[in-house]
Specification:
Blueprint: H1 4-7, E1 14-18, H2 23-34, E2 38-43, H3 46-58, E3 62-67, H4 73-87, E4 92-95, H5 110-138, E5 141-145, H6 158-178, E6 184-190, H7 197-202, H8 206-214, H9 223-234, E7 245-248, H10 258-263
Parallel strand pairs: 1-2, 1-4, 2-3, 4-5, 5-6, 6-7
Helix pairs in contact: 2-9, 4-5, 5-6
Bound molecules: coenzyme A and NADP nicotinamide-adenine-dinucleotide phosphate.
NADP nicotinamide-adenine-dinucleotide phosphate binds at residues 18-19, 21-25, 42-45, 48, 69-71, 96-100, 119, 145, 147, 190, 192-193, 196-199.
């Protein structure tokens, strides 16, 4: 009898997840593997990648790792080539690698701003560009992880907001240019997600309970909820969707920057 890993929606597909060594990226990689995809995990820290790859393989899936910085185009290109050659094809690219921290714009250094733009926006372009040929061969798809800061003016995060807004624009531009090559390009904009590095950086300590009270659905989202949306976008159910950003934030962005202002005591 075939295991769930061999008979899932993505059986036989090859996937690459940047930022796959932790948090949301790790959860997305695990869910892709559960749906039958063979998954390449990318990040800077080999130990983190190894931990997630081990969890996937011990559960019966297939995972490999390639430690690199998404800011280094030549290394990202090698990771993509290795994915396509080891798995037979690259069908799904997920750009989840990102950096963020709280900083007032007035004291943020130019290098701090650039570091976040480089990782989030340039990193997303690097992986997408490097994957173009493989994805056009497989008629595959890209999913970029953005954030509500792309649209909602948010205190202390001008760097991340600008980077994520850039990624959403890149998503639409690549969708337009690459549709004719059979490549779909979409994004997911999560709201606050439980148990992640992102939320421990942005809403530490008491800020968490204050933010949770303001979320219209009354709670943080789960990594699994983001993963299910990814499955939808990359599976046959999403075959006519391109250039879209799925907002999965429990209604948080409907309130504008209010919750963030409260959280920061502003
Ligand atoms: N506040 C203000 N500036 C900060 C900062 C903070 N908390 N953390 C880093 N910076 C600045 C640094 O001072 C530096 O600028 P400088 O050279 O002018 O001093 C610049 O950012 C780059 O820092 P560096 O540590 O060299 O960057 P890096 O490329 O190694 O790391 C970061 C990138 C800064 C985004 C780091 O936080 C990171 O690796 N994050 C990954 C995990 C993460 O953020 N997860 C949440 C995802 S939402
Ligand atoms: P996370 O665990 O810190 O995930 C980010 C990952 O990116 C890490 O595994 C990190 O590993 C990797 N990374 C960072 N810089 C990199 C670089 N230069 N090159 C390669 N890999 C790099 O944080 P998370 O909270 O789960 O966030 C995941 C994604 O979801 C991000 O895109 C984030 O903006 C988005 N998001 C999160 C939330 C939330 O509530 N957490 C909300 C909205 C959007 P290394 O440090 O080992 O490289």
């Amino acid at each position: 009898m075939k295991s769930v890993f061999q008979s899932g929606l993505l059986a036989g597909k090859g996937a690459l997840v940047t930022g796959g060594g932790s948090g949301i990226g790790a959860g997305l990689a695990k869910r892709l593997a559960e749906q039958g995809a063979k998954v390449m995990l990318i990040g800077r820290t080999q130990e983190k990648l190894d931990t997630i790859a081990k969890e996937i393989t011990e559960a019966g899936g297939v995972a490999k790792t390639f430690a690199c910085d998404v800011r280094k185009y030549d290394l990202v290109e090698k990771a993509i080539a290795e994915t396509a050659s080891s798995f037979g094809s690259l069908d799904v690219l997920v750009n989840s690698a990102a950096g963020n921290f709280l900083s007032p714009a007035a004291t943020l250094s130019a290098n701090g701003f650039r570091a976040v733009i480089d990782i989030d926006l340039c990193g997303t372009f690097n992986a997408s560009r490097a994957a173009f040929e493989a994805l056009s061969a497989s008629r595959g798809s890209i999913v970029n992880i953005t954030a509500t800061q792309a649209h909602v003016a948010t205190p202390l995060q001008c760097h991340a907001g600008a980077a994520k807004a850039g990624i959403e624009k890149l998503t639409r531009d690549l969708a337009l240019e690459w549709g004719r090559f059979g490549i779909r390009v979409n994004a997911i904009a999560p709201g606050p997600i439980e148990g992640t590095e992102g939320m421990s950086r942005l809403a530490p300590g008491d800020a968490e309970s204050s933010l949770k009270k303001r979320v219209p659905l009354g709670r943080y989202g789960t990594i699994f909820e983001i993963a299910e949306s990814l499955t939808y976008l990359v599976s046959p159910a999403g075959a006519y969707i391109t250039g879209a950003t799925l907002l999965i934030d429990g209604g948080t962005s409907l309130l504008g920057p209010g919750p963030f202002l409260d959280m920061m005591g502003m």
